[in-house]
Amino acid sequence: MKKILNNWLCLGLTLCTAACSSNPETATTPAETTDTPAAAAAATTTPAPIDARADSTATLTIPAGDSAVTMLGELKTVNQEMLVRVPVQGKHRLSATLIAPDSLPNIRFAQVIRPGGEAQGPFGTTVSVPTPQDGTYTLRITHNLRTEAGLTREFKMRVVLSQ
């Protein structure tokens, strides 16, 4: 019985992953399916991810009115790291998730560096930290050398700023 339940959970996770990784340029919010003019005006499409695969540093600026942004990144070698700077103004929480094509990715958030230089970490593939002060928070992404998984190179990262 446990094996059947595990198989169903794996299938559900696979379907969820496939749905979440659909083409972001064509993904729409559920409000677009309603027929009211107000709902149609409020509906927006998901913006295309920011492509930062060619750089080892990136600055993600989340446009006014939005609370999330997606970025494409790549770690080409084992010892490479990627620094992603996220300017924060008037938000109380920064959350980020690394999404890799591998089922067992070996990437992680090594540190979150606050505007004053204080660092926290290591974390896994998700992180959620309070942002008590305005300024630039830096996400340091590295390979997780403690895993035996294959080398994860390309990944997506979704960053959300919230109240």
Automatic annotation (TrEMBL):
N-terminal signal peptide: 1-27
Region of interest (Disordered), ranges: 22-49
UniProt keyword list: Signal
Name of this protein: DUF4625 domain-containing protein
